[in-house]
Amino acid sequence: MIATLSYDTTAHELQLLDQRILPSVVEYVTCRTSSDVAQAIATMVVRGAPAIGVTAAYGVLLGAREAMADNDPARAMSRVFDSLAASRPTAVNLFWALERMRQVYLQHSPLRQSTLDALQCEALRIHQQDVEDNRCLGDHGAQLLPDRGTVLTHCNAGALATAGYGTALGVIRSAVAMGKELQVYATETRPFLQGARLTAFELQQDRIPVTLICDNMVGAMMAQGKIQSVVVGADRIAANGDTANKIGTYGIAVLAMAHGVPFYVAAPSSTIDRAMTSGKNIVIEQREPSEVTHFMGYPVAPEGIAVENPSFDLTPAKYISAIITERGVLKPPFAELKSSC
Q1: Is 100 labeled as ligand-binding?
Q2: Residue 109: CB atoms within 10 Å
Q3: What is the pLDDT of residues 67-98, one digit of tens each?
Q4: Which of 7, 37, 110, 202 falls 20 to 30 Å from 322 in CA-CA distance?
Q5: What is the pLDDT of residues 241-294, one digit of tens each?
Q6: 114/213 same-domain check
Q7: Which structural domain, as residue segments, surrounds residue 86?
């Protein structure tokens, strides 16, 4: 698997795989400042809730190195946390990672070399934990998939959306490693085409059979009995099980229930926002209209047309068959979300 991100502890640089230009070009963006990191998150150089969280942790570390040279280091650090928090609003892993880094910073303030050392250790720990959690998650979720059959996934919740291995694709990878014979259907995922560009690319690289379909084909394929299960990732899960994920997920969940197809959500426990009692309170990010009106830089809609471009939608818990975490599989009514995760 191609590395999504890496941190050079000698050069103090963060390398991010530029996911805007995959699969045509494999190229890395170098981040040397916290502003570089915030910009990379906001512009989708890096995307996927777990990967955003890990990236933000390294952003704090880079920001702390800058703040050391500032006349007011405490004020500079406040700006670092604020700018990273504002980079994308929906993925809770971003705020989870920032809070972990904030606690380390506060425990070792005022800012000095020992603070930088502690922040670096915490960022590396968050990075490694994500990989380990995804592998555990994958092993738990693999048990739910059929020994032989098809599974649909939406958007990209693979190694490219995490520090490695993946959540939804981690479940598929683990199932294949167990010897299960799976055929994956990947939705294209308009308007940013994460499924077409990223999920199809990842699965091809792993030689896992994958077929790309348009987003609007899901219902017809379920009606034909071509899809036996669905597994998706998540950007934020409320304490009642309501799940925010890439736009289009809600429609797939409704179709899955209508056709008796199990619908699974795979995410590390860091994606669970226990303070959010209901998904109705989750902030849904609105992105630039040009993502809808243009394709690869070319206009595909009338100039000046009104556009709605929410990046995520909300799937109510009643449509979810199970939530898969590194700690195990949770079933409705998801009471465990409020205490165990």
Answers
A1: no
A2: 12
A3: 999 999 999 999 999 999 999 999 899 999 99
A4: 202
A5: 999 999 999 999 999 999 999 999 999 999 999 999 999 999 999 999 999 999
A6: no
A7: 5-135
Do 169 and 131 share a structural domain? no
If phi > 0 it is left, if psi is from -120 to 50 it is alpha, else beta; for residue 289 that is alpha
- Partners of 245 in the β-ladder: 313
Tokens of 306: 């009104």
Q: Are 65 and 7 in contact (CB under 8 A)?
A: no
**What type of residue is 42?**
A
β-partners of residue 186 are 153, 212
> What's the DSSP call for residue 155?
S
pTM: 0.94
Using alpha carbons, select from 29, 23, 24 the residue that is nearest to residue 44. Answer: 29
C-alpha dihedral sign at 144, 148, 153, 158: positive
Single residue among 89, 109, 135 that ends a domain in this structure: 135
Helix (H, G, I), strand (E, B) or coil at 60: helix
Contact 153, 183 (CB under 8 A): no
Q: Is 246 annotated as a binding residue?
A: yes
Cα 161 to Cα 194: distance, rounded to the nearest angstrom: 10
Query: Quick one: which of 232, 236, 305, 294 has its CA closest to 270?
Result: 236
The catalytic residue positions are 235
User: Do the annotations mark residue 194 as ligand-binding?
Assistant: yes
DSSP labels, 199-250: IHHHHHHTT--EEEE-GGGHHHHHHTT----EEE--SEEETTS-EEEETTHH
Residue 200 annotated as part of some ligand binding site: no
